[in-house]
Amino acid sequence: MLNIAKIRNGLVIDHIRAGLGIRIFNWLGLDKAKAPVAFIVNAPSKEMGTKDMLKIDETIAIDYALLGFIDHNITVNVIENEVITEKIHMTLPERVENVLVCKNPRCITQVEKSAPQVFVLSDRAKGVYRCEYCDEARGEIDLR
Amino acid sequence: MVTGRHLIEPKDFSIEELEGLFALAGRMEEQPREWRDAAKGKLLASLFFEPSTRTRLSFEAAMLRLGGSVIGFAEPGSSSAVKGESLADTIRTVSAYVDVIAMRNPKEGAALLASRFSTVPVVNGGDGGHHHPTQTLTDLLTIRSLKGRTEGLTVGFCGDLKFGRTVHSLVQGLARYPRNRFVFVSPPELRIPDFVTKEIIDKGGIEYLETEDFEKALPELDILYMTRVQKERFFNEEDYLRLKDSFILDGAKLRRAKADLAVLHPLPRVNEIAVEVDSDPRAAYFAQVRYGMFARMALFASILGVA
Hints:
The complex is a heterodimer of chains A (144) and B (307). Chain A is built from two helices and nine strands; from the N terminus they run βαββαββββββ. Chain A is mainly β. Chain A has a five-stranded antiparallel β-sheet, covered by helices on one side. Chain A has helices at 21-27, 64-70, and strands spanning 10-17, 37-45, 49-56, 75-80, 83-89, 95-97, 118-123, 128-131, 137-138. In chain A, 10% of the residues lie in helices and 37% in strands. Chain A has two domains: 10-89, Alpha-Beta Plaits (2-Layer Sandwich), CATH 3.30.70; 95-138, SH3 type barrels, CATH 2.30.30. Chain B has 307 residues and is an alpha/beta fold. Helix content of chain B is 37%, strand content 14%. Chain B has eleven helices and nine strands. In chain B, the strands form two sheets. Chain B has a five-stranded parallel β-sheet. A four-stranded parallel β-sheet of chain B has the order 2-1-3-4, sandwiched between helices. The longest helix of chain B is centred in the C-terminal third of the chain and has 19 residues, at 285-303. The termini of chain B are close together. The chains are: A mainly beta (144), B alpha/beta (307). Chain A binds chain B through residues 104, 106-112, 114-115, 131-136, and chain B through 86-88, 105-110, 112-113, 127-130.
């Protein structure tokens, strides 16, 4: 196991499904971060087998609804003076706007390009979202 | 109160609101003359981005019989959609002129989108293969008028149950009432989709049966909802020819049915109901068309707040 130095003030994004870390890294724009960032892939995990992790030595603003949508198993630890002061657990948001794109060729959003792409959670257990307009189901992660 | 509301899908209205509409439609059917000025001075926009004679005329007849007026177009060729105008802009413009909009559009979700940009109520007259709520209102009103109730009925659906959105919507509509049971009669290729049996029927704990044996299913039915089996739904002509006659209602099959069965069909009919059935008192599909107009009259009067 690699040893990464403790961060002083910032965020640890933990329990990321292995392989998904790079997408979250890119989504958060961490390639342009000024503060030190550690990106760990395939870290051993008792519950998950392997997991990805991100350690950011800076407190940045994150859209937790969207992060929950990307992977609702993620926990975000808020670190202040090297101590965890808050653990934020993600949940699947009830609706996401302009995150998923409807692939149904018969959907009005295919021709009405200015319409927001709205998906509503229809099955929390299975993580199924449906297009608010045509009801087409989407389960997999597909960032716009 | 449904005044000022949109109707995009059947479940937009509660059971109580539907019952209110059906009672009003019943009064309109009994005394149509009393309603001939109810919507005087009100204007309907009838926007048909896809041709549909029956539904469009039903909407327009309903508004005219309430004393209102109608503007609109019957095909997209005569709308600004051909110039590339967005639906959102068309609706913003039209809703500045009228009191209510009835719209059919081939794209799924078009009515919901229209409702987001309209300043007046939008009634969905069909958005592709998605929703067609005034057909469901029509079907429920027909059943309620002919049987005196919409609960405790054994309802058979026959034909194309896979692609028939009227079937899916009516199942959803009837599943909201207690003690209805369903019998689905279709070839395996066109059986009722899982999202209907799992999402609607199983969740409601409703009893249902799937069968290919039309004759055996017929005697227990209170309502028979026939649909068209279309040739293009089959992979090959052989299957179509083998199966098509199994799902045709004729006089001989009807002899096995209850004396008070009501046969419904969303129309147009092709050959799935033999013409000889038309003269049978159980044939209710043309009465159903008439109920459709009263359902839309009651809907407009309620939405416009003139009932």
